[in-house]
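Table 4 source record.
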Amino acid sequence: MGKNRKHRAATQQARQGGDPGTPRMSRAEIQAASAEELAHAIALGALESAKGNARAARHFAVELTGNESFIPALEQGARQAVRRLLIEAFKNGWLPEDIDQAARRRVDEFATGYLTDAMADYIGEFAPETVDATWRAQLEALGATRWWSQADPHLGQWAAKQLLIPAEAMTAVIDAVALLFQLPKMQLIRPLPGTARPHSAAHHAVDDKVLGRVRGLLAKAESTAFPEEAETLSAKAQELMTKYAIDRVLIDADTHAPDLPGARRLWLETPYVDAKALLVDVVAQANRCRAIFSAEWGFVAIVGDDADLDAVELLTTSLLVQATRAMIASGNADQRSAEARSRTFRKSFLIAYATRIGERLAQANADTIAKSAASERLLPVLASHELKVNEAFDTLFPTVKSSRVSAGSAEGWQAGRDAADRARLEARRPIGK
């Protein structure tokens, strides 16, 4: 069933009956209501949906729109309802990419798209220089722009663009508001729009040439059909990032440049999210960062210098692609048992893979520092850097609970370690050569 047909089927089902949990408004009351009153009604309907009563919320969407086109007060009320909760989510630490990722996991493409437009509408009110660079980059990646005519309300134009009738469009609005109701309070890791200071000290960023070389190596690693070559290319990418990072912290120590830990969130795809989070954690540790996993929402929050965060994100993304490919190849091999194609095998594979990668990265880092011509000076500098990262992490996450992830397949565990052992992560050039 196509996406529009699915929405119409849900709308038709909602027409067949209501639910006492949602607001009840007659057509006359809706026609006479102000935008503020309708915003409140939409929020109440969305709250019912957030509690699990989605059918009632769809019925209320039909009740609000009837068989007519949108009335201006309803369009304004929809904008107000979404805007208020969107601002609240931003104040609670959610970034544009976070909201998009959550929407892709919890609501359909219509509600997701409506939220993208709502974010574009909100951010358009701020001078660009007062909007944090991370915000600007995320909104650009989402394609969040004010494409609609400012002379008319957004909702009607958006519904026409999506080929939705009013009841379907209002259902998407209620679904979007319901999602925003469910977003928990998180840590504020980037400045809110309007509060970024143009002349404040910037976080470190990876040199574009270095970043280009790393991306090139990882792209080759992901595209090759030979596992040994992929792992060697990944090791080379990690080597390059580590050498660059160590050179950078030494220069910063000499010039007294500010070393400001930042933070970002890396969203993971199902299945085996906890095993994948373990891989993020070991890569983060190897790159002088700290990580914490949100099992409910499926992301890992990482704290560290921005250049190190770039390294973690790049290498983790590539390693996840490669690990998944190796896991599937191992499980589908003719000589493997039926267990090798099971979820238990595959999860155990990823846990073992991450564990072994972490061991080898730690050893490789120790070897790299030992071979450095400036190893005696480097150790206290790295210790100072680690202290700052730990302080920033403890400030953002004052209460952290440890958790375990267990492997239930010995065969999968061994296969994962074997795959990780093929990665020549200890292959590093001495610092300064």
